[in-house]
Amino acid sequence: MKKQYIFLLIFLGGMIFTACDENNDITEAPDLAVVECFLTPGKVPDTVKISNILSYSSEETDTEWISNLNVVLIHNEISFPLLESEVPGHYVCPENTLIIEEGETYRLEFEYNDKQLTAETIVPEIPREFNASDDTYYFPTMGSGGPGSMDDGIELTWNVEENITYYLKIENIETDPELAMEFMIEDDSTNMPETSRITQPSSDDFYSITMRNVSYLGTHRVILYAVTEDYARMNEQNGTSSISLTDPYTNVENGYGLFSAFATDTLYFEVE
């Protein structure tokens, strides 16, 4: 999921802001590790990416991946050493040694600059009872009196889990999607509606598909994401204000970044 890769920019930006004094003078960046890792149930652990900021100016930021670390992933008090891949600062779990389980707690540990960095996350359960009230959405038409003459919509529902946030990605997966209505084309014909959209995170157990959510005919995929509180807080900070940049959220002790988890389920519907 693409949002994973945005968070590093948030932390880098935040460290830039906090390294400026009240007179906007640039000072040395703190030599702290920045961690990025997202676990998903039923899969091997995601690559653990570890970097730091070497130097920056008001115009650019240089990031260095940190190599030669002894990184371990801990589950049920059993340590799983990670190996550095061919890409510097990218640490992976040896094949078939560990599969992530929903509802389980995982801990990440390594030492950097004489400091022990630790982070912990609980993997959400795969969303249960993710269903749609219909498998076809009839785009409203004017005065036909037939299917789609009223915007009845499709109701998506699922079971919610305590302390878990949910959001949806709704996307048309046709190779050459056709607009549902020509009036949806804006004045500039090159400015077409997006073929996918992401809902705001919430703790709701339902969502309605209407003409506000879809712009094209054909097959649509809906991915329901169940994310941890840490992940949700990171998303809330995603470019929303300068305050978030000066105090970026992190769940890594003695470092920066995010060690978190998410789970997904998927369904499909047609738009006619």
Secondary structure elements and their pairing?
Layout (H helix, E strand, L loop, with lengths): L6 H12 L15 E6 L8 E9 L4 E5 L6 E4 L2 E4 L1 E2 L5 E3 L12 E8 L2 E8 L8 E2 L3 E2 L16 E4 L7 E8 L23 E3 L7 E4 L8 E10 L1 H8 L5 H5 L9 E16 L1
Parallel strand pairs: 1-17, 11-17
Antiparallel strand pairs: 1-2, 2-3, 2-7, 4-5, 4-8, 6-7, 8-9, 10-12, 12-15, 13-14, 13-16, 16-17
Give the low-confidence spans: 1-13, 55-59, 144-149, 239-245
Could you give a short account of the major beta sheet? 10 strands, mixed
Range of strand content: 35-45%
Q: Please, how many domains?
A: 2
Structure, described:
The chain has 272 residues and is mainly beta. The chain has 2 domains: 159 residues, no CATH class; 100 residues, no CATH class. 9% of the residues lie in helices and 36% in strands. The chain has 3 helices and 17 strands. The protein is elongated, with a radius of gyration of 22 Å.
